[in-house]
């Protein structure tokens, strides 16, 4: 987590659209058999590589099938050849980097002495929110709330590695006492907000993590209007984030701008701040590079010859010919690193 | 190939946008270190699955690195959960389905007694063009041309399995004698056309396969204007295909319309016909279903636990816990079929 936070902060601060082409998320949205989306999130480092995450968001997964709400895979392509260099699980990295993004934003927007973390929504993303923020702030306790009480009750076990007291409390107490508050819910489209916004501490910083679909928002409009709202990536936040509810003139500096010039956030202490986290492809690129480095050093994963190659690149049936063994280069240079969870 | 042609024709004829959401290709385009593109091609069968091909087009691959110009991988997602069901090579399937698409179009547009096939551009795609068309037409000979004479000379060996005479000839002879002509070149953006269009048989049918980028076209405008031009998928062909050169009113029925009502093509015999093949995600879906069925029946590929799953779907660190062995369902239902070329 520490490495991911540091690498993300560095990458955001150095971001240059001339060298990195970032796209907003696109995807399929569906209602049957269950509401969900399947989206692709591409980013390219010009002349080097492209990272594309395919991510499914299916809130019915947890209760119905014991699967995470967010399932995903990340592919890393060499843009000098089109070769798939690596394919990795994206489910764990998504949780990791979403936590790291809130940590980076909170470093610039929250009070450094924040001691009470409030969590509204106690699913998988809340675990990494708490983990990431615990690395930067002197947290003393966690107040948590979920519309499903058993989900809130189970949270303490999931974050036992933090060694912090966790209390499942009514929503109003989370709002009243939190120095930093994270909303990470699967609220239905059109059903928000998930907090009232009326009992908040004046200095509260909110990481609004759940808003990632048109119509899906977690925060009340009047709170957004009186807060400093910082989106991760404005073009996407205007479509899918809390920023859907705002006009462009009502929106503060982005996470990129905060990382480059921290005083943009610090200047606004005294009124609430909001990090509108929709999740961006650049975060996936950062986390997958961190994880792949470790996977390679630890020998995790396997190398597969995935693309159809043959001695004669002009012969699509070459791999079927008796003499069509794989060329030497394919045996060494053009395998795909498949990093599977089981290995 | 026969199965792919039949399945594609069936899928096109039955296509219903209420059941299948087809997207046009999007991607990254780059000039350095070599000109190329990396694109994603998504299609969703509502309530069932999504197929997404990631495809690189890098013409410098062949000479520089002995790799195919087109390298790709295809992923198949279950849209009821977001689970990656299968990951397969897309390089061979792309060639296969591009041939099959020309066969379907030619069945509706070319003379059934076409005996001379002309090929302009003798790379990997030309092999499957010749193969696919040989399955539907009484071909007697192949006349081939490539701007690199050695590529044309090597073509006979690559299609020796067809048992047809292959003659490398000047471009003008291909144009004069072909009943069916396929252009499948890596002509540079803005450098087209690749044929003159002045010596063609009046009944010629042309499968224009190479045009797949803004500015990349293979056929002269005056030929397009006097021909019946049938795109595979109009929204994409207007951006990337030969149809870039035309106004919507100058464009004939699409491949979908031909497959549903063959008389739309037959009515126009006597003037040239053009299939503007840009390559569509639906073709990838068809071919990967054909190939996966065979792979499963033949036991090709392997099952990997790719996504990070644990007993508690709300615990992203569950897989790290000592008790966090994979849940039973993950062991059976949620593995990814990775069909690698080597296996």
TrEMBL record, chains A, B:
Pfam families hit by this protein: OCD_Mu_crystall
Domain of life: Bacteria
SUPFAM superfamilies: NAD(P)-binding Rossmann-fold domains
Protein name, per record: Ornithine cyclodeaminase
Species the sequence originates in: Cystobacter ferrugineus
Lineage: Bacteria, Pseudomonadati, Myxococcota, Myxococcia, Myxococcales
């Amino acid at each position: 987590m520490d490495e991911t936070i540091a690498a993300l902060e560095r990458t955001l601060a150095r971001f240059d659209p001339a060298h990195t082409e970032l796209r907003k998320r696109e995807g399929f949205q569906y209602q049957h058999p269950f509401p969900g989306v399947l989206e692709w999130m591409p980013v390219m480092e010009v002349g080097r590589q492209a990272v594309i995450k395919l991510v499914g968001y299916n809130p019915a997964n947890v209760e119905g099938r014991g699967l995470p709400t967010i399932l995903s895979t990340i592919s890393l392509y060499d843009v000098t050849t089109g070769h798939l260099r690596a394919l990795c699980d994206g489910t764990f990295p998504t949780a990791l980097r979403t936590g790291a993004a809130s940590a980076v934003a909170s470093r610039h927007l929250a009070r450094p002495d924040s001691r009470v973390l409030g969590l509204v929504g106690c699913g998988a993303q809340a675990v990494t929110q708490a983990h990431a923020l615990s690395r930067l702030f002197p947290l003393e306790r966690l107040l948590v709330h979920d519309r499903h009480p058993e989900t809130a009750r189970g949270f303490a076990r999931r974050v036992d590695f933090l060694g912090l007291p966790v209390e499942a409390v009514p929503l109003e107490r989370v709002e009243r006492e939190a120095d930093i508050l994270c909303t990470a819910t699967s609220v239905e489209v059109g059903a928000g907000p998930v907090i009232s916004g009326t009992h908040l501490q004046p200095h509260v910083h909110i990481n609004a993590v759940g808003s990632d679909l048109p119509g899906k928002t977690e925060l009340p409009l009047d709170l957004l209007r009186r807060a400093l709202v910082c989106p991760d990536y404005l073009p996407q936040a205007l479509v899918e984030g809390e920023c859907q509810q705002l006009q462009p003139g009502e929106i503060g500096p982005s996470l990129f701008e905060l990382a480059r010039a921290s005083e943009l956030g610090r200047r606004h202490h005294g009124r609430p701040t909001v990090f509108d986290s929709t999740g961006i492809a650049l975060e996936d690129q950062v986390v997958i590079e961190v994880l792949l480095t470790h996977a390679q050093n630890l020998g995790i994963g396997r190398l597969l010859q995935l693309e159809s190659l043959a001695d004669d690149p002009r012969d699509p049936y070459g791999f079927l010919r008796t003499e069509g063994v794989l060329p030497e280069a394919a045996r060494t240079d053009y395998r795909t690193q498949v990093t599977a969870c089981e290995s």
